[in-house]
Design a protein that fits this description.
- The chain is an alpha+beta fold.
- The chain folds into two domains: 30 residues; 157 residues, no CATH class.
- The chain has seven helices and six strands, in the order αααβαββααβαββ.
- Strands 1-2-3-4-5-6 form a six-stranded antiparallel β-sheet, with helices on both faces.
- The protein is globular, with a radius of gyration of 22 Å.
Amino acid sequence: MGDSIRTVFNNAGNLMENAGSKNSAKEDEPPLSIPDLVGKAVAEGNSGLGALLNTGSTHYIYSGTAEGNQVARALNIPFSEGDAWSIGRVSQGSTDYYVLIYYSASQNGPLSGHASTNPNWSWRATSSGGYEYPRTGSHIIVPVDYYVYDAGNGIQNTGLRQTYYTGSADSSGQATLVYAPGAGKEYTIR
């Protein structure tokens, strides 16, 4: 009986050591980037993106909106001052894709800096991906990264990204600076 009890306690001790080392390994891992978080959520099918984007018509979700905040909370998207993103669902043939457009303020400066180059500028996006009228000032282009995910499995489609969004093998492209849909003056991208 004594040997059995020692074995149980030794096994329990080993299990706790292993669990502790696994937790410390997780703490050492860098946090996932926004593109990785979106891809993971699409692959796992629990992102809530489908419910928000499957409205029967083209629909986009923008950072700085109530919908965007809901998605950011659901995916644990880290907020960095000045970052902006939008996510839309598009169809290509018989396959649906999520398209993430991401603007990094740490790499490109605050979005407000782009807007200040044209004081008469006022463009606002719509939830269907268009632009509200009237709009004033010139079209302002900002540098962004594009990520295209198969809606069924979350795998990135770099060929589609290159063909329709970036024109090159990497993810960098351009997007339009806009105000997010709604009454506020929150900068975002489309």
